[in-house]
Amino acid sequence: MVNYDIDKIRADFPVLQQQVHGHPLVYLDNAATTQKPQTVIDTLVAYYSQDNANVHRGVHALSERATANYEAARAKVQQFIHAKDPSEIVFVRGASEAINLVANSYGQAHIRAGDEIIITHMEHHSNIVPWQLLCERTGANLKIAPINDAAEVDLDAYTQLFSANTKLVACAHISNALGTINPIKTMIQIAHDHNVPVLIDGAQAAPHTHIDVQALDCDFYALSAHKMYGPTGIGALYAKAELLDAMPPYQGGGEMITQVTFAKTTYNKIPFKFEAGTPNIAGAIGFGAAIDYLNRIGLTNIAAHEHELLNYATNAVNRIPGLKIIGTAKDKIGVLSFTLEEAHPHDIGTVLDRQGIAIRAGHHCAMPVMERFNVPATARASFGLYNTFAEIDKLVAALEDVRSLFA
Amino acid sequence: MNPELRELYQQVIIDHGKRPRNFCKLDAADRVMDGYNPLCGDKLTLYLKIDAGIIKDVTFQGSGCAISMASASLMSEHLKGKTVEEAENIFNSFHALVTEDNAKAKDQQLGKLTILAGVKEFPVRVKCATLAWHTLVGALAGKQEPVSTE
Ligand SMILES: Cc1ncc(COP(=O)(O)O)c(C=O)c1O
Q1: Residue of chain A whose Cα is closest to the Cα of B64
Q2: CB B2 to CB A355 under 8 A?
Q3: Active-site residue set of A
Q4: A63 belongs to a structural domain
Q5: Ligand 1, closest atom to CA A174?
Q6: Cβ neighbours, 10 Å, residue A393
Q7: Which CATH class is domain B3-141?
Q8: Sign of CA dihedral A337, A343, A345, A347
Q9: 20 to 30 A Cα–Cα from A239, which one of A69, A374, B38, B150?
Q10: A337-348 pLDDT, tens per residue?
Q11: Mean pLDDT over all residues of chain A?
Q12: Domain of residue A304, residue span
């Protein structure tokens, strides 16, 4: 690809410059978390060494700078996902907290006994358990949209799940365990035809694909910065302003109020109503730096590079006898989940690790997916913007070693 | 290939992992115990037949990685005919073998189990190697709840 200078990109990531067990690190666990470019690290260091102060409450210079940087980061998130207004971006710990916020706040206000919430069979536990908890509290029911053998949502079956009782849809934009890119635009349209709002779990999508929440017309969108080459412990919830305005607070504390007396408290305006306590200021600013980095490389370039990696890797591993890819959707990101006859995913993970190759083995926080495909676990290689074809060659060679050991 | 890997995945371990011995339900069992490693999903059910303080029979069923299956298989072979007290001592020695440096790898009572000593170089795999053993200890202690490694 022209202007995709992989050597230069790799040089941006200090973590990639190391040896593991005597081999250059081959980091293929990007769906779990991504590595951080130097600019993100520098931003964190600069914040703590120059600007550290609490936000929205000091009159002094440092607090002003910290507040300006924190709010600038919010605007970066807003622009990145094409939200209408920065007030629609709530900083949270990550996608899990974003979903829990909606399940608690929106759920408390709108979900009653007998109501139904639709999710899909390919959700991460973070987009299952908060809804189960809500169902337990309220007496609502969870409905599961099935997936086919290629790991694509069955849209007819999904459509048929809607009833007068359906109150919410929660669906992954992209599956972490399978790589499937869901047709969320269509799914949102179908839900809206039934007057049902939709939460999209975008944890896996943000580092790989353009997101336009207005074009999608989704009601909620959840993000984790650490999957986007940003810091851990920070993420964002997008929600349409009118929804956020009407939702009760999620947590109480400083920052989320305008006035407190023992008789009555009035809440701050959005998004601050949902940001109780001192937020992860450094994290938010680092999140902004990660978005700058993604914009600089360009999501179109990243997606194209990762797509080539996926095609190359899929062809290569398909030549390995006994290897079975789980998740063969037509539309997918660079995630290769697989089983290898004879070798358990854990053993595969251990053998690869000794060659410096980091993959994940296990259920990937998606146990229902494992059950759907009738496997106890899979091995998963997931690609990021800094991975190379040579790294995939190493992966394939190491898998051949696994076979020679276990066959 | 890496020598530590060769040490870990010796032929005996691969063999027991693929074709575990005593891999069946035991109808005559008087203790049945489930063990579970939530981190990786390894699962097994251990069946014990104990008579007058002597382990007459040990079998198991389940699924998991080569290390957990081989360890359960080797354990089942090794414990048959041992007293409950001996089994508890063997557990302690085995645990030391896979977790401690300079463990008495020559510990007489471990016999063939010493083949799992290579696990020590792979700290994240210790739970795989000890799942069956923790399940055993739970069964001997008469626990009702399934044993979990977490
Ligand atoms: C699809 C999906 N949803 C939600 C999450 C949860 O994200 P976090 O752990 O950052 O809250 C993840 C992370 O693994 C994910 O892959």
Answers
A1: A344
A2: yes
A3: 365
A4: yes
A5: 1
A6: 14
A7: alpha beta
A8: negative
A9: A69
A10: 999 998 999 999
A11: 96
A12: 6-30+298-406
